[in-house]
Design goal:
Distance between the termini: 44 Å
CATH architecture of the largest domain: 3-Layer(aba) Sandwich
Strand order of the largest sheet: 3-2-1-4-5-6-11
Strand content: 15-25%
CATH superfamily of the largest domain: NAD(P)-binding Rossmann-like Domain
Number of strands: 13
Number of helices: 10
Largest sheet: 7 strands, parallel
Oligomer: single chain
Length: 317
């Protein structure tokens, strides 16, 4: 199959492109220039998804069977101070790409990478979230993703084959240290390399997140492209809630040096969802995709990634 991946230079995008290439698919990786390029075997096209003309040109050139729309403004905390930019990219970019698909590739299947953030705040004792739960977005980022989902339903009503994928938190090697597991791992790697005092700065350790390995999420996206039902929404999750404190404890156990932990008020979000826990049963039932989290393996890979990255940075100094 021919696949176009937007946001291909981003964290999940790079892993998705690599998985598609390994699966023998013809991949066009689309995105803005960044520190990471697409994997070997993927063609590259520079693309600003808010530019409908550029989207149309990319689609006309790639002639995709599948469009994976991963491009977007991804930082939940920063979106609170840059709401217009977040909405412009996440909602406006989705609208532009959908309009381009309806014009240039009306028979393609578009898969939107949405977010569990759209569910908003739920009681700590609530059962695992299913896809029919009402959306109550409580952050600007969540609002932008909920709006993108509505844009997809609008396009679906006009005949486009759309599948919405509500990804819960995913981690893995290559993630920016804007995100909690990578932030801890990078600090530990710097401490091990002698680049930082043995003090680990943390934010809210009480939050609970439903974690998946990004490589398993990429595989689930592909299964959704192959077997998901048109117009449906799927949670992409391991169903394994993990407290941020447990992530910290696991990484400290993997560290080669003891550290002291200090809370940094700058790392606390002004709006935070304390607990998020989802069910992946619908995705498993329709596509066979089932994510099983091996937290120690995943966090070990994250820490090894940052060890290599910080060692390389140290050599360049």
């Amino acid at each position: 199959m021919r696949a176009l991946v937007t946001g291909a230079a981003g964290f999940a995008g790079r892993h998705l492109c690599a998985a598609l290439v390994r699966g023998g698919h013809e991949v066009t990786a689309a995105g803005l220039p960044g520190p990471h390029g697409p994997p070997d075997g993927a063609a590259w096209v520079e693309l600003d998804v808010t530019d409908v003309g550029a989207c149309r040109a990319a689609l006309a050139a790639a002639r995709p069977d599948w469009v994976f729309h991963l491009a977007g403004y991804a930082h939940v905390g920063r979106a609170e101070t840059e709401p217009d930019e977040c909405l412009r990219i996440n909602f406006g970019g989705t609208r532009a790409l959908l309009a381009a698909c309806l014009r240039e590739a009306p028979r393609t299947r578009l898969l939107l990478a949405s977010s569990s953030e759209v569910y908003g705040r739920v009681p700590p004792d609530a059962p695992a979230l299913e896809e029919d739960r009402p959306l109550r977005p409580s952050t600007v980022y969540a609002v932008s993703k909920a709006a993108a989902e509505m844009a997809c339903q609008h396009a679906a009503a006009r005949g486009l084959d759309v599948v919405v994928l509500r990804a819960f938190n995913h981690v893995g090697p290559g993630q920016s240290d804007d995100f909690v597991a990578a932030a801890f791992a990078r600090q530990l790697a710097r401490i091990e390399a002698g680049l930082q005092e043995p003090v680990l700065s943390v934010g809210n350790l009480a939050a609970v997140r439903d974690l998946s390995d990004v490589r398993d999420v990429a595989a689930a996206y592909i299964r959704a492209a192959e077997a998901g039902r048109p117009g449906e929404t799927y949670n992409v999750t391991s169903g394994s809630p993990v407290a941020v404190q447990a992530i910290l404890d696991e990484l400290r156990a993997l560290s080669r040096r003891p550290v002291r932990v200090e809370q940094d008020p700058a790392r606390l979000r002004p709006v935070d969802v304390p607990v998020i826990h989802g069910s992946g049963e619908k995705l498993a039932r329709d596509t066979g995709a089932r994510i099983v989290l091996d937290l120690r393996r995943t966090l070990g890979d994250v820490l090894d990634y940052w060890r290599a990255s910080e060692a390389a940075a140290k050599l360049r100094r």
